[in-house]
Amino acid sequence: MHMPVTIIGAGLGGLTLARVLHVHGIPVTVYEAESSPTVRTQGGMLDIHDYNGQLALKAADLMDEFHAIVMTGRQATRVLDPDGTVLLDKADDGTGGRPEVQRGELRQILLDSLPAGTVRWGHKAGSTRALGGGRHEVTFAGGATVVTSLLVGADGAWSRVRPLLTTATPEYAGTSVVETYLFHADTRHPAAAKAVGDGMLIAPAPGKEIFAHRENDDTLHTYVALSRPQEWFAAIDFTDAATATARIAREFDGWAPELTALITDGDTAPVPRPQYALPTGHRWDRVPGVTLLGDAAHLAPPNGDGANLAMYDGAELGKALAAHPDDIEAALTEYEQAMFIRSAEVTTFEGGEVVGIDSEHNTAQGLINMITEKSR
After folding, report:
1. How many CB atoms lie under 10 A from the CB of residue 273?
2. 167 CB-contact burial (10 Å; exposed 0-12 / middle 13-18 / buried 19+)
3. Phi, psi for 122 (deg, rounded to 5)
4. Contact assessment for residue 195 and residue 352, using Cβ atoms and an 8 Å cutoff
5. Fewer CB under 10 Å: which end of the chain, C or N?
């Protein structure tokens, strides 16, 4: 296949696709809105699963590089009741199938694996339009354009490529998370550090939960989830860090102080992150010359699989294009039909059904029961 592939978005999914195409000798260009790979931090920890994310990295021939950035011990898991009682304390014995890495480091090994100039930074897609015959035009902020016969939207929740295929748009999923960080936790925040342990902490309750991870440099990264309408969060002045912190913390009155410290002792201002989703089972009719992957195709609230699925989409699309070098439509059809099925499957955590945050079963014991059922 000699037709160049145009990818919009240099996230993990788009870069995985670019790398797999490069491995197979297929020309590719990635257009990214950000001005450089270091213009912002790239999020926190990711557990890369052996049944999708790691398979994508194998297809990209990057497993050695992946193993070099794995954070030893971070698969440890603790589940606590709101009163601080530890109901599960599972150490990382090295046998788990979801080793943890920093998102930024994973993105960097993908970037480093591509020829110089593959990613065109500072190209924010503004609009797209069909030109007929499977050709599409992308117009970037500033007026520059590119015309391509094979366009892939890897541009996330608010994809500019998606309207070429479907009228579906993301809707608020009913839950937002508030993000905080504690730095030098073992010395400055010892109670919270002890509660989190060596890896991940989950403290769930109906309608709310605290999720925290131990990251590089003795940092605790916390996501506080609340099932509330957008208007509830809009009424909080997040430009006033102290007031916003106090308001969020009030929702956890009566919880153990080592848990609420993950909110009240934050070393950064709390940042609200509303969660959006596309309709369950979202799919579209085949449109020549264009497709989607990752959140652009099947956005869902965070469940531990989003980045893994995006990478797997990228790898599977790359493999399909390599397998059908003379029939792009056969490749896109094969890829989309498989992607529709896997993205519509019941969301799971460690193989068990994930209950909604509003469920009466969204408790520490409910989570442990789910994990125990999987182990059986």
Report:
1. 13
2. exposed
3. 70, 30
4. no
5. C
Kindly write down the DSSP assignment for every residue of 16-40, as one continuous string.
Answer: HHHHHHHHTT--EEEE-SSSSTTSS
Per DSSP, the three-state class of 65 is: helix
Give per-residue pLDDT as tens, 154-198: 999 999 999 999 999 999 999 999 999 999 999 999 999 999 999
Name the 3-class secondary structure at 211. Answer: strand
Residue pair 50/98 in contact by the 8 Å Cβ criterion: yes
**242: part of which helix (H) or strand (E)?**
helix 241-250
Q: Give pLDDT tens digits for 305-364.
A: 889 999 999 999 999 999 999 999 999 999 999 999 998 874 444 444 456 888 888 888
Written as one string, the DSSP assignment of 323-373 is: H-TT-HHHHHHHHHHHHHHHHHSPPEETTEEPPPTTSTT-SHHHHHHHHHH
pTM equals 0.94
Identify whether the C-beta of residue 306 lies closer than 8 Å to the C-beta of residue 295: yes
With tokens 């652009």, the residue in question is: 296
Contacts of 50 (CB under 8 A, 6+ apart): 97, 98
Strand-pairing partners, residue 63, are none
CA 91 to chain centre: 24
Which region holds residue 45: left if phi is over 0, alpha if psi is between -120 and 50, else beta? beta
Structure tokens at 176: 């937002």
Strand order in the sheet with 145-148: 125-132, 135-140, 145-148
Task: Work out whether the CA dihedral 51, 56, 59, 65 comes out positive or negative.
Answer: negative
Q: Which two tokens stand for residue 99?
A: 């080793």
End-to-end, the C-alpha distance of the chain in Å comes to: 46
